[in-house]
Target: Dihydrolipoyl dehydrogenase
Amino acid sequence: MVVGDASLDIDVLVIGAGPGGYVAAIRAAQLGKSVLIVDKSELGGVCLNRGCIPSKALISAAHQYEAAKHGEAIGIKAENVSVDFTKVQEWKSSIVKKQIGGVSTLLKGNKIQTFQGEVMFINESEARVFNDQEAPRYRFQHCIIATGSRPIELKAFPYGGRILSSTEALELKEIPKSLIVIGGGYIGIELGQTFAKFGTKVTVLEGSDTVLPGFEKEFSQLVARNLKKLDVDVHTEALAQSHEKTENDVTVTFTVKGEEKKATAEYVLVTVGRRPNTDGDLGLDLLNMKVTDRGLIEIDEKCQTSVPNIYAIGDIVAGPALAHKASYEGKVAAEAIAGLSSVIDYKAIPAVVFSDPEIGSVGLSETEAKAQGYTVSVGKFPFAANGRAQSLNATEGFVKLVADKETQILLGGQVVGPEASNLIAEIGLAIEMGATLEDIALTIHAHPTLGEIVMEASEIALGHPIHMLGKQ
Model:
């Protein structure tokens, strides 16, 4: 690196070009700031390149393959249905490429400078950005750190060869004959279910007493039931201990309530969470920035760190590792830097699992609301009683709304069933606006649509359901 060179001036340095970083960069540019965004990998971060987008493409392909094989109930017969996995992967990659191109166009259109490389802080207002070709030094007024996260690696299951992280699983060249998934959270279940639909024999090892432990059991049990239909072996309260590799497979030793068991598969996929990218050569220690023992940067309601001109967003701060949370925080940070009064408010951040059936949740669950002292009104309406769901031949699941009984203001909502990932948005909007159950019930929903189920659930909570007998 060059010593003693002059610094280039920039208003805002953004470190990381994922859904948090690039959104922050664009918003800062819209507000009149000169912006440099730096990422050592492709634009779009994990979400676009190795997470949200490619995984949903594989999920979609698996869903369509499964539907083609099982259309007899509605009169569709297809013989010799097969998967050309090379074509599936090519299609997935084409989507990623288009999305990267879109982000690049947006950054250029907003006159944002980009640099592919790494960043190392020199002090609170200067940083070196570098790659193999160059290492310019920048002086910045403000900085937004958005370096994201990476899969947690277990000591007993180091990545490599037949031990996969989600990144390697998404890039497999062939459909594996068998797969052991360590971790039954949303990543493990999404990918495990996807490969099971493609024909892989899947085994899931989950340490809690249910898969998807972050959700109430009335939701996760529906997913567990469908895993069983796909012949997925699920072991709960299971702790993976060790493994033995051969040329063609891996045998995993695990315990269930102290009893030792073994399972063998072609590959092992480890999905036990993600670790924030705040270590390495970034140089946070030089800034005396407050960082937790878990590597999370401490921030205030404006995403401001303990170093006043530096902000942090996304997976490197507390809260769920969600792309849309990172994007939201990116906007708040950029607006705070520009002098606006924006602050973070997490009450209406949705969480979605693209399982089968899908799960969507926003706000408080019934259990959480009661724990916070609310007396609640609850409305629960099944997809099976909805005409559109029946015409889609997709009647599993329900919508559940939770409101404060005294004020009828909506506190939370959960959806398990078809299009839960889309239906949850209406509930999130209602929470954000402080809507009541009556507001939702009085909103005219088009017929026949799945969205009517949200209205029906509100009517049940109010005690006057139209399409169900009795209150529930």
